[in-house]
Design goal:
alpha+beta, 27 helices, 24 strands
Length: about 850
């Protein structure tokens, strides 16, 4: 019946009830007259009429659903009865409530991240038209990430017919002065069309014009709304004020909208002029806004046609790619979020199975109550609605508690998430969609946990329920509960295997030899601005003086510097030429000072380290890594060999190998070892090799205590410089494994919760089975069954359920664990040892969960049981 009819009937509620009574009485009277006419007595005629038309109260209840007011009143009465019932059995209600809150809360927390990162549109107009345009040569050792080289960017600009506008950018760090104390900020160097591509306009001032990037023009800058608020007090007079970035004056011309921080949570934006320079090449990200009327496929085909001219190779299809900006920002975090989403769904399903089992067991004890209601005229649909109301109340209360748990756990979860795991441009927060998701989950959970108990509770009928002398479940109900336990075990095994695979992979990462000893090592990374240190000798002098001050600190046993620290995100790679016919190759090029290898704990395998003789005026020297020596001079002694890191070396460019050191993981723990050439810092002639430097000191005390001292030393040498970072080397190593560690711990936590819920489910089913079969157990004991026989009977049933769940879980894991392949290191997604170990652990936990019910069954007194029967 429509809601309009229900509303009309609620207005005429009393008239409707009178009409029903009058109609029913009319039919009873008519039947009585027919019966009397047929020769029955008046009493017999009335009894037959009433039996034919049924209980008037039942008929009235069946028809009153058409009345909205009565329907609401009945629903409220069902809710009140449910509350009284849960108050009467608080342990059942509390167990179900906490179980559902845990499952729903975990889903809400993870969905908040999924919504914020994957589902919420980018905060730009028409974000679906924004693309990252990238060109890469994956087989080249010099290509670190997809992007667009400057020369290709300029060529694409000339040939572009598919994008309204394109822009490229880079995101170096910079030292900001002129706005309080010197501080490090993220600086986005962008081409003038950058903000037009994103369709973003400043809230104050203007964005960049084409002439802002011309040589000789006064440098201008835009700042973020957050920097404007924190450093300039939201003062509108900030326009035309001058700040300095790495010592270069910049005039502020605009403030960007609140929340805008693209790319890389930038604080300051400055104009970029793309120029082609000899012997220097930059590869930068490139973005574009698709022209109206142009499809992605058309733009991709056009880009591929242009890209074929970028190289002599005939096929560049795999290397020229358009990527939606949202997908590019999300990057590699999409897969972990989907894995976590699947994990919390498994936890929720296990929680639902547990609560459904709990309600099924409770329904057995309510058989007489339900039978009485049926006998008094309540129909099956009415009983089902009442029981579903109870389940809905549980699920809604669980959703409220779960949402509260997720709300308070979200800040903690954000703190636990590694800093570089989630995109900085996307804010993680709850919104209406998350709350709607929680509500939808609560409705689905209410149906999942309520339908099976409701239908099974009303299936047997009043007569069978009244004949039952004790709480015994029907075979169908028993099968359903066992099926739910099997499903719980299977889902728990899938989570356990996933967590075990990630754990094994993480242990493999921990076992990797980095090539250096990070213990007792402190680092400080500094960028030297070209505007204030104009020549190479000035840069070297600054580094020497700062290194000397750090070396003189108490408890410092060794100190040195390197231009790019191991395990970082940046390296310098280039051509390598050897004398004597060994040919050409490539290598990572590092500039280091004397004492660097001792400070880092890098093993010297042959020859010597750099020393005073390796000065700017000394003979060119080099130290090579073990892998480089083995690759270029296999079976030979590398000492005394000559090489050059220039593509076309002159007489002064040849370096003599004076030492061989152990291989170092320069680019990351999971990356292959990079062949490396180390050059004495004093002999480096290119400024690009010197502007960035990390100072490394080895101390006998606690490294972190030196952080403020190192900062003060840097400030004493140059008060306008701020370090990029001051950190212990062990912390930097930990950062490289922070993401896999977080993934392992989070999935491990989900698997532990799943194991606990599965064990609780097995315990509940076995305990209920013991109660239901106590008469059978009593008879067995009376006939001579021993304690071990009864325990074995219960455990045998548990083993069968666990075996079925393990088998199903193994099959599901084989199908699902391939999704973890990219998250694993040196572990296959179908690792047999991991599968077997996880299955054995889960089976053992299942048997342990049944031990207490088995012992309880073995202590049944047959005399007491049979007397009670």
């Amino acid at each position: 019946m429509s809601w309009l009819a229900r509303l009309w009937n609620s207005v005429r509620r009393r008239d409707l009830r009178d009409d029903i009574d009058e109609e029913l009485q009319f039919h009873i009277d008519a039947r009585m007259r027919d019966n009397v006419a047929a020769g029955l007595s008046r009493e017999e005629a009335r009894r037959d009429a009433v039996m034919r038309f049924g209980n008037p109260a039942a008929i009235r209840e069946q028809t009153q659903d058409a009345n909205l007011a009565v329907w609401l009143e009945t629903t409220l009465r069902d809710l009140a009865i449910a509350v009284r019932s849960f108050r009467k059995h608080p342990m059942v209600a509390a167990t179900a409530l906490l179980t559902l809150a845990l499952g729903i809360g975990a889903n809400t927390a993870i969905f908040t991240m999924v919504r914020s990162v994957l589902l919420r549109p980018l905060p730009f107009p028409e974000p679906e038209r924004l693309y990252v345009i990238s060109y890469s040569e994956p087989d080249s050792p010099f290509w670190l990430y997809p992007g667009m080289p400057d020369r290709h960017y300029l060529q694409f600009q000339e040939d572009n017919r598919w994008f309204e506008s394109v822009a490229t950018f880079s995101t170096p760090l910079a030292t900001l002065t002129g706005a309080g104390d010197a501080t490090r900020v993220v600086r986005a160097v962008v081409t003038p069309d950058f903000f037009r591509v994103l369709a973003v306009r400043p809230v104050t001032g203007r964005d960049f014009a084409g002439e802002d990037a011309l040589p000789g023009r006064r440098t201008v800058a835009l700042i973020s709304h957050e920097l404007w608020r924190t450093r300039f007090g939201s003062n509108a007079s900030v326009l035309n004020r001058t700040i300095a970035l790495d010592g270069v004056p910049h005039r502020l011309v605009g403030v960007l909208p609140p929340g805008f921080a693209y790319p890389a949570s930038a604080d300051v934006w400055t104009p970029l002029a793309v120029e082609i320079k000899p012997n220097v090449g930059y590869t930068r990200p490139m973005i574009g806004r698709l022209a109206r009327g142009i499809s992605e496929a058309e733009a991709q085909a056009g880009f591929e046609a242009v890209a074929r001219r970028f190289s002599d190779e005939p096929d560049q299809r795999a290397r020229a790619r358009l990527t939606p900006l949202q997908e590019a920002i999300v990057g590699d975090v999409k897969l972990p979020l989907l894995v976590f989403s699947g994990a919390v769904v498994c936890v929720l399903l296990i929680a639902c199975a547990n609560v459904a089992n709990l309600l099924l067991m409770r329904a057995v004890s309510r058989r007489h109550e339900i039978a009485t209601r049926c006998a008094l005229g309540a129909g099956r649909a009415r009983i089902v609605r009442h029981l579903l109301t109870e389940a809905a109340l549980l699920s809604f209360a669980g959703a409220l508690l779960g949402a509260a748990l997720a709300f308070f756990a979200e800040p903690l979860l954000r703190q636990l998430i590694p800093a570089d795991m989630l995109p900085k441009e996307l804010a993680i927060r709850m919104d209406g969609w998350v709350l709607g998701f929680t509500l939808a989950v609560s409705i689905a959970v209410g149906l999942l946990v309520g339908l099976a108990p409701a239908f099974h509770a009303t299936r047997e009928g009043a007569n069978l329920a009244f004949r039952a002398t004790h709480a015994t479940a029907s075979p169908r109900s028993t099968y359903v509960r066992q099926a739910l336990v099997i499903a719980e075990v299977a889902l728990a095994l899938v989570l356990l295997i996933g967590a075990a695979l990630l754990g094994k992979s993480f242990l493999g990462l921990l076992a990797i030899d980095t090539g250096f000893d990070p213990a007792q090592v402190m680092t400080m990374t500094v960028d030297v601005p070209e505007a204030r240190y104009k020549s190479v000798p000035e840069v070297k002098r600054f580094h020497e003086e700062l290194l000397g001050s750090l070396t003189r600190l108490p408890e410092v046993s060794a100190a040195g510097l390197v231009n790019w620290l191991p395990l970082g995100t940046m390296v310098i790679r280039g051509d390598l030429v050897t004398k004597g016919g060994a040919g050409k190759g490539w290598a990572t090029k590092a500039g280091v000072s004397a004492g660097y290898f001792r400070a880092m704990g890098i093993r010297l395998l042959a020859g010597r380290e750099f020393g005073d003789r390796d000065s700017a005026s000394g003979a060119g020297a080099a130290i090579v890594s073990e892998s480089l020596a083995r690759r270029i001079w296999p079976g030979e002694n590398a000492l005394g060999k000559q090489l050059s890191i220039e593509s076309q070396p002159g007489p002064q460019d040849w370096l003599t190998v004076v030492g061989v050191v152990a291989d170092v993981r320069q680019g990351g723990l999971t990356e292959a070892v990079m062949p490396t050439v180390y050059q004495p810092f004093q002999q480096v002639r290119r400024r690009a090799f010197l502007d960035h430097a990390t100072f490394v000191i080895r101390t006998s005390g606690e490294p972190s205590t030196l952080a403020p001292v190192m900062r003060s030393i840097l400030k004493a040498h140059d008060p306008d410089l701020a370090p990029i970072s001051v950190a212990a080397m062990v912390d930097l190593v930990a950062r490289t494994i922070a993401e896999p560690e977080f993934q392992t711990r989070l999935l491990g936590a989900f698997s532990l919760v799943a194991l606990g819920l599965a064990a609780l489910g097995i315990y509940g089913v076995m305990a209920s089975a013991v109660v239901e079969r106590r008469r059978e157990i009593g008879i067995r004991v009376a006939l001579g069954a021993g304690r071990s026989d009864v325990i074995g009977m219960v455990l045998q049933r548990t083993v069968l359920l666990a075996a079925a769940g393990v088998a199903l879980g193994l099959v599901a894991s084989l199908l699902l664990t391939d999704a973890l392949a990219t998250l694993l290191f040196n572990v296959t997604p179908t690792d047999p040892v991991t599968f077997a170990s996880a299955a054995a652990v889960l089976a053992g936990i299942a048997v342990l969960a049944a031990v207490f019910p088995a012992c309880r069954a073995s202590s049944v007194d047959p005399v007491v049981v049979l007397r009670a029967e």
